[in-house]
Amino acid sequence: MEEQSLIHSVKEEEEEDENMKTQMEEAEEEDEESLPHSEILDIFEEGLARLVQDPLLCDLPIQVTLEEVNSQIALEYGQAMTVRVLKADGEVMPIVVVQNATVLDLKKAIRRFMELKQQREGGVKHVGWRYVWRTYHLVFQGEKLEDDKMRLKDYGIRNRDEVAFMKKLRKK
C-alpha cells in the first residue's frame, strides 16, 4: 500500500514538472511574439491621450511629460501653486512650482516651461539663460525678486499671483 502511494506521488511530481516545462515554453514563445518598439509606443501614446482627457489633466498638452502630470496632480492636492509669469511681449506663462519654492526654483521652472514649449512648437532652439537673468529681473508688485534663495511665500507670492519680467537698468 505504501509502495503504491509512493509511486502515485512520484507520478504526480513528474506531471507537475511536465506542466511547469510546458508553461515555461509557452511563456518563451509569447516573448518571441512581443510587439516592436514602434507599436508599443503607439499603444502608450493612445493610452496617454485618453488619460489626458480626464478633467483633472485636460489642461495638459497631448505630448505631456511625467513632470507635467505630477505638477498638475500636486496642484490639485494643494502641494503646488501656479505663478503667472508675464513676459515683455504680453504673453502669460502659467508656471507650476511647489508651495515652498524659492526664486531659483521659479527661474528653473520658467526655463523648463520654455524648453518644453520650444520643443513642441519649434522656433528658437537656444535661449541664453545667463543673458536673460543678467538682463531682466522678476518683479512682484513692484518688488524685485533678487535673492534666489528666498522663498516666494516670503515675497508674498501666492497661487495665481502674477510676476513680471522687467528689464534691468544699466549701471553707468
Describe the structure in your own words.
With 172 residues, the chain is α+β, with helices and mostly antiparallel strands. Helix content is 49%, strand content 16%. It has five helices and five strands. Strands 2-1-5-3-4 form a five-stranded mixed beta sheet. The mean pLDDT is 83.
For the biggest β-sheet, the strand order reads 2-1-5-3-4
Strand content: 15-25%
Q: Helix/strand/pairing class, anyone? A: alpha+beta
Order of helices and strands: HHHEEHHEEE
Radius of gyration: 28 Å
Total strands: 5
The number of helical elements comes to: 5
Shape: elongated
Mean pLDDT: 83
Largest sheet: 5 strands, mixed
Which spans of ≥5 residues are poorly predicted at pLDDT below 50? none
Rounded to the nearest angstrom, the distance between the terminal CA atoms is: 108 Å
The level of helicity is 40-55%
At a glance:
By secondary structure, this protein is of the alpha+beta class. It contains five helices and five strands; from the N terminus they run αααββααβββ. The protein is elongated.
Topology:
Elements: H1 2-32, H2 37-52, H3 66-76, E1 80-86, E2 92-98, H4 103-121, H5 129-135, E3 136-140, E4 143-144, E5 162-167
Parallel strand pairs: 1-5
Antiparallel strand pairs: 1-2, 3-4, 3-5
Search tags:
49% helix, elongated, 172 residues, 5 helices, alpha+beta, five-stranded mixed sheet, single chain
